Amino acid sequence: MKKHSARVAPLSACNSPVLTLTKVEGEERPREPPGPAEAPASVGSEAGGRTSRRRWTCSRGQLQKTFWGVAVVSCVCASWAGAAQLAKLTFRTFDAPFTLTWFATNWNFLFFPLYYAGHVCKSTEKQSVKQRYRECCRFFGDNGLTLKVFFTKAAPFGVLWTLTNYLYLHAIKKINTTDVSVLFCCNKAFVFLLSWIVLRDRFMGVRIVAAILAIAGIVMMTYADGFHSHSVIGIALVVGSASMSALYKVLFKLLLGSAKFGEAALFLSILGVFNILFITCIPVILYFTKVEYWSSFEDIPWGNLCGFSILLLTFNIVLNFGIAVTYPTLMSLGIVLSVPVNAVVDHYTSQIVFNGVRVIAIIIIGLGFLLLLLPEEWDVWLIKLLTRLKVRKKEETAEGGADLGSGPQHRSRRARPSFAR
């Protein structure tokens, strides 16, 4: 199994709703094909002079990455859907989405300590915390993490992170988690459009189709509830959250490029520090102005708040660092698979109505999301696959004709000596 010198681009909420951070769009790492590689066909001939057929095989490393992929997908799906459902449950007794966002973002501080613990356990060349910190700080430039760098390269992303997650959680208050989770999947379409315009990324027709499907799904989802103000506000909040997430991701790639695992962990921990130092005043103001008010601290459901934060932290860790053990495409599937999970839970716990328009909107947005997962060379892979299938079919037809033709000739050759007598 080849080891990747993977670089990840820490995004706050890119491929995932709420406090998701970064994923791997824009990372500098070798791209893995989405399927098993084809083993080179043997050129030797069989006993009858026929060429041996090509066979598709998987290496042990690929099987291992696929196995880890299934585990990562399950973890991403469970943690993401669980966080959304727990947030919905929390708002029944604690109506404070911004305070919940602030509380959960504070847990980002744990990223670098957890990364360093993994470094100590796995690395053969162990470094002290100070050495590792200084090495990761090179990501911000030759001078490291200075006060100027903090306010110019970290603070803007901290604001975008907070906005993304606050809008997402506020939307969960307004509409059901199924609609929120499926609408946030439009995030990938927004990332593509912004990357195409700002970063001059390669134009892909299939991704334009996916973006159109995403926009059509948003309109149909709005129509599913009859354009009621409550529903429209909730959908607008989710779309705003997805847009902030896409902006975060594109700006990160534009200003900072890509980051190694340690650098990504340090950056996310810095966002947690920024949240503690500069965002703490906002929940305090909201409390005293009674915008987000609770009678006493004993009434706060600390279990729900901590559970929600742990699920989001798990989700972000797996989504950011799962690339070390599996394919990025498989990790992205966990996001879209959380939609049916939320749908099942909502069916039994809320009054959601799965009418025809809502179901079609969910399918359209899901299809657009899957189209965006196609690699840039998907057309080349498809042409190669069709060519191989065509060649194989011709070989089989030729072999079948040779078998039919050789039978009578073989019998005639054996009969000739009897006539000679």
UniProtKB/TrEMBL annotation:
<feature type="transmembrane region" description="Helical">
    <location>
        <begin position="67"/>
        <end position="87"/>
    </location>
</feature>
<feature type="compositionally biased region" description="Basic residues">
    <location>
        <begin position="410"/>
        <end position="421"/>
    </location>
</feature>
<feature type="transmembrane region" description="Helical">
    <location>
        <begin position="230"/>
        <end position="252"/>
    </location>
</feature>
<feature type="transmembrane region" description="Helical">
    <location>
        <begin position="351"/>
        <end position="374"/>
    </location>
</feature>
<dbReference type="GO" id="GO:0016020">
    <property type="term" value="C:membrane"/>
</dbReference>
<dbReference type="Pfam" id="PF00892">
    <property type="entry name" value="EamA"/>
</dbReference>
<keyword id="KW-1133">Transmembrane helix</keyword>
<feature type="transmembrane region" description="Helical">
    <location>
        <begin position="181"/>
        <end position="199"/>
    </location>
</feature>
<protein>
    <submittedName>
        <fullName>Thiamine transporter SLC35F3 isoform X2</fullName>
    </submittedName>
</protein>
<feature type="transmembrane region" description="Helical">
    <location>
        <begin position="264"/>
        <end position="288"/>
    </location>
</feature>
<feature type="transmembrane region" description="Helical">
    <location>
        <begin position="325"/>
        <end position="345"/>
    </location>
</feature>
<dbReference type="InterPro" id="IPR026505">
    <property type="entry name" value="Solute_c_fam_35_mem_F3/F4"/>
</dbReference>
<feature type="region of interest" description="Disordered">
    <location>
        <begin position="395"/>
        <end position="421"/>
    </location>
</feature>
<feature type="transmembrane region" description="Helical">
    <location>
        <begin position="99"/>
        <end position="118"/>
    </location>
</feature>
<feature type="transmembrane region" description="Helical">
    <location>
        <begin position="206"/>
        <end position="224"/>
    </location>
</feature>
<keyword id="KW-0812">Transmembrane</keyword>
<dbReference type="InterPro" id="IPR037185">
    <property type="entry name" value="EmrE-like"/>
</dbReference>
<keyword id="KW-0472">Membrane</keyword>
<feature type="transmembrane region" description="Helical">
    <location>
        <begin position="139"/>
        <end position="161"/>
    </location>
</feature>
<feature type="region of interest" description="Disordered">
    <location>
        <begin position="23"/>
        <end position="53"/>
    </location>
</feature>
<dbReference type="GO" id="GO:0015888">
    <property type="term" value="P:thiamine transport"/>
</dbReference>
<feature type="domain" description="EamA">
    <location>
        <begin position="68"/>
        <end position="222"/>
    </location>
</feature>
<dbReference type="InterPro" id="IPR000620">
    <property type="entry name" value="EamA_dom"/>
</dbReference>
